[in-house]
Write a structure and sequence with these properties.
By secondary structure, the protein is of the alpha+beta class. About 30% of the residues lie in helices and about 25% in strands. The chain is built from five helices and twelve strands. The chain has helices at about 5-15, 30-85, 100-105, 165-170, 225-230; strands spanning about 145-150, 155, 155-160, 170-180, 180-190, 190-200, 205-210, 215, 235-240, 240-245, 250-255, 265-270. Strand 1 (about 145-150) and strand 2 form a beta hairpin. The chain is rod-shaped and about 195 Å long. Keywords: Membrane, Transmembrane, Transmembrane helix.
Length: about 280
């Protein structure tokens, strides 16, 4: 027998020896089946996760597209609401709000007319401010009731008249009081309302005051407020609870005020007198 044949026989005998055989474990079959099940389960989990990821991606893409479609309409509605909330302005001073399409456009760069220079944007138009109208004041009502007291006297009784002149006018003089060369008379008669006249021996009638309601030719009388007196007669001054308003060279009005600051009585006095007071 040749040497190669001898080697082949020895190898066959060696491989056929039961001592070199590998015995599989008893649970080899169940282990193989369990491994196959685990591999199928992993494949199902991976497939489900991939499907869920695809669904989530598709939903996200749909939301993005929906937002992109609704955003211009919402911008246009918001711009209209802001424009309607703003007060109306003249068309020449406030520009119209841009539409949604114009607001999304990027303005093209302005090319300068000369190298090295850039055109400045036009300043925004200033809003037109309307000046508020001045508050309207209610005109003061002029007094017209009662006797008319003028700068020179009351009716037929004039400043400077003597007792004799008064009597010649048909006046009835009733002496009420005497003081330092002056006599206080209650005067009555035609052409004169009931009044009190103060007659000085040297200067004649120096004051006359009607007994009832009276007013001046300028409309100041009983019930007239203090402000009306000072506005009507700019040179008015205060003397106790009365206001003294000069009437020129002849004398002055004396307005007695009540507790509310309104005229209560009127008296006209001569500029030159030595007893009324």
């Amino acid at each position: 027998m040749s040497q190669p044949d001898d080697l082949e026989q020895r190898l066959r005998a060696l491989f056929s020896d039961d001592r070199l055989a590998v015995e599989p474990p008893e649970d080899a079959a169940s282990a193989i089946v369990a491994g196959a099940r685990r591999r199928r389960r992993r494949q199902r989990i991976l497939t489900s996760a991939a499907g869920a990821a695809c669904v989530l991606a598709v939903a996200s893409a749909g939301l993005v597209v929906l937002q992109l479609r609704t955003q211009p309409a919402a911008t246009d509605v918001a711009a209209r609401q802001v424009a309607s909330a703003q007060p109306a302005m003249p068309s020449s001073s406030v520009p119209e709000p841009p539409s949604s399409a114009e607001s999304t456009q990027v303005p093209a760069p302005v090319e300068s007319s000369a190298p090295g220079t850039a055109e400045l944007p036009a300043p925004p138009a200033r809003p037109h401010h309307t000046k508020p109208a001045p508050p309207q004041t209610t005109p003061t009502t002029k007094a017209v009731s009662g006797a008319l007291v003028t700068a020179d006297g009351l009716g037929a009784v004039k400043l400077g008249m003597t007792e004799q002149q008064l009597a010649d006018q048909g006046m009835k003089l009733t002496a009420v009081k005497e003081s330092a060369g002056c006599t206080y008379y209650d005067v009555s008669g035609a052409g004169v309302p009931a009044a009190t006249a103060v007659v000085s021996q040297d200067n004649g009638v120096v004051a006359v005051k009607p007994d009832g309601t009276a007013h001046t030719p300028e409309g100041v009388g009983d019930g007239s407020p203090k402000d009306q007196v000072t506005a009507t007669y700019p040179g008015t001054s205060e003397s106790g609870s009365a206001l003294v308003s000069p009437t020129g060279d002849q004398g002055a009005y004396h307005f007695t005020l009540n507790s509310d600051g309104a005229v209560q009585s009127i008296e006209v006095r001569a500029k030159t007198q030595d007893c009324a007071g």
